[in-house]
Amino acid sequence: MKVAFCSSEVFPFAKTGGLADVSGALPLALKRKGVDVKVFMPLYKNIKPQKTFNEYAVTKYEDVEFFFIREDNYFLRDGLYGTISGDYPDNLERFSFFSKKVFKIMKEINFKPDIIHVNDWQTSLICVYLKTLFKEDLFFKNTKSILTIHNLAYQGIFEKEKFPIIGIGWEYFNMHQLEFYDKINLLKGGIVFSDMVNTVSPEYAKQIQTKEFGCGLQDVLKEKGERLCGILNAIDYKIWNPATDNLIYKKYSKNTLDRKVINKKMFQKELGLKVSKDCFLLGMVSRLAEQKGIDILSLSLPSLLKKYQVVILGVGEEEYHIILKKIANKFKSSFSLNLKFDETLAHKIYASCDCFLMPSKFEPCGLSQMISYKYATIPIVHHTGGLVDTVVDVENGGGGFAFSVYSEQELIKTVDRAYNFFIDKKRWQTLMKKVTDYNFSWETAASSYIQMYNKVLYT
Ligand code: ADP
After folding, report:
1. pLDDT in tens, 202-248
2. Which of 135, 195, 380, 383 is least surrounded by Cβ atoms within 10 Å, i.e. has the fewest?
3. 17: Cβ contacts below 8 Å, ≥ 6 apart
4. Number of domains the chain is built from
């Protein structure tokens, strides 16, 4: 089976969030299961490919070829999608250019895919083009397309005046295809034109068909019927494993959890917090967006910081930077705020903290809770989307702390509950040991993706 996997970000080449983790790991897992997969992404600044040609560049990594579409005017910029002040104004040009170019390169390298697997709004136009511009093209006669939605809240919405940039006729600008309340909606186009849609957890697949979580697309999604499913994401244990992690202070595993404390103390020292194994250290690594629960978190921080230590690593919307900075100024001795993207610091947080905070308002899947488990860092989550599928509360025999009502009071109560558990050292040790055994590996998820590919090809 031949699969062209298209994504706007792929770890380790470019990353702003979980999409990159998935796009870096899933193709490799598919390859290990015998799928002939090639990955397509833009050639951004700072990517150093092994071979460069006029229109594209290539790097081979663990036997998978990664093709980077080249257009310096569009992709040689500091950000992937924009700056802190907002999205690049020419994102429609950038990603329609990319989407068309993928077809050209596939033909040039004579790669005739059975499946084109696209991800989120940035590559959604590929599903549209397959059934419009390339409808009569014999090269793609047997090609089907699949769209994975990593986050329904980002849809790629543009003013309708820009429609000609896409390069298809105005007849496709209608409420059943690319139009959404008089604007262009690329994700909607992807949903409608793809042969199958999946999202990144079973719970989120259900939620997005409701008004509350459907972001206006619930009816379009419901119409997919059997052609919509949820496949739980996974993590790459080659990257996320405290036993082999070179970015943390001291490596450890299930049987050497006492070394986790060394990480904690060295981290407290590095951050300028009080060094003590008994101080309850809470961590968070996250895009700072409304979705991630920054509103209830910032309301609860003044109370939490009186009792506990908190370290936050994140970048995102300016308003949240401002709110968090104000809190950081007030609580210098117990709060470490790091407004940046920093892979090393992220690893140190997963390794050094006692608990990981994920009070997400909604969460398609979430990877951080799975990473935390591996590092024996206990997740504290709002029970929504993928966090329902992956976190069972300790009271129900699970390995995390979850609250169902989205409010700062519930968040504070749940952190206090976790702390009461933490001070019972024996119980905490048992809990830490238990969660390191959880397995969210790509082997299982990749098999589900192959099943979905087969469904699209043969039923
Ligand atoms: P989302 O995709 O919604 O951003 P996920 O939980 O699915 O959230 O994935 C987030 C990924 O991005 C994790 O690997 C997390 O460690 C990483 N990440 C998020 N923010 C940062 C940051 N500021 N620095 C380093 N890594 C980050």
Report:
1. 999 999 999 999 999 999 999 999 999 999 999 999 999 999 999 99
2. 135
3. 9, 287
4. 2
